[in-house]
Amino acid sequence: MLVPLQAGAETACDPAQLELRGGTGPDRPPLARFHVEIADDSAERAKGLMFREAMASGAGMLFVYDRPQPAAFWMKNTLIPLDMVFADARGVVTHVHANAVPGDESPIPGGDAVQYVLEINGGLAARLGIVPGAELRHPAIAGAAWACPAR
């Protein structure tokens, strides 16, 4: 289940969760918290969410690259529609691709300086208002614009 966050709720980052906030101004409220699986090596990134028939609404997969780079995804062997949230080295969302079509092998470009990609259920990014400029928070995002609080 998708867990909305309360404004001002600061918790230490959990490696199994990713928090996302958006809006404008210094007190931007968090939008949501997702339970995430991490894909941080070549084999995990290649498999991604392939062959899954369903995913909980509050779940996702965070793809982590060693450095910013051009990134493009496809939906080969992926059975559910996905939103792809592309972010830079600081975890700032730079592009959102909505409702990627299951099985489509067309490349979905995310940009030239992508270091993180969050995949969530299709349509959820629009429903939550996830747009470029939103920020991701997770322990894997070193130097994040929205850093994890000190423990």
Characterise this structure.
- This protein is mostly beta strands and 151 residues long.
- The protein is 7% helix and 40% strand.
- It has a seven-stranded mixed sheet.
- Strand 2 (30-39), helix 1 (42-47) and strand 3 form a beta-alpha-beta unit.
- Residues 1-8 have low confidence and may be disordered.
Q: How is the secondary structure organized here?
A:
Layout: E1 17-21, E2 30-39, H1 42-47, E3 59-73, E4 82-87, E5 93-100, E6 108-121, H2 124-128, E7 135-137
Parallel strand pairs: 2-3
Antiparallel strand pairs: 1-2, 1-7, 3-6, 4-5, 4-6
Instruction: Note the total helix count.
Output: 2
User: What is the average of the pLDDT values?
Assistant: 90
Order of helices and strands: EEHEEEEHE
- Rounded to the nearest angstrom, the radius of gyration is 14 Å
Q: How do the strands of the widest beta sheet line up side by side? A: 5-4-6-3-2-1-7
- What is the terminal separation in angstroms? 26 Å
Provide the structure class.
mainly beta
Poorly predicted tracts of residues: 1-8
Q: How many runs of DSSP E, i.e. beta strands?
A: 7
Residue fraction in strands = 35-45%
Spatial shape: globular
Please give the share of residues in helix: under 10%
Q: Profile the largest sheet.
A: 7 strands, mixed
